[in-house]
Amino acid sequence: MTDQYVPRLRQRFLEDMRIKGLQAKTQTMYLREFTRFLGHAPDTATPEELRAFQLDMKDRGVGAPTFNNRLTVLSFFFATTCL
Prior knowledge:
The protein is mainly alpha-helical. It is about 75% helix and about 0% strand.
């Protein structure tokens, strides 16, 4: 992964959110948390890694509203930005 790859991916994610009229700050924070959990670019995440992230959130006691918001952001990221 090059140093320029992640900023381009992040920029596209921000643009996609702006197009949809979504607030970028919270969504970006959630995507950043997922990226830290993975240790690599989020667009290369496997279904097993996404499942492990969900289990990690449950183990840490993340509440249902936050849990669901994070999954919504990831769904948007994969369905819109990664196409």
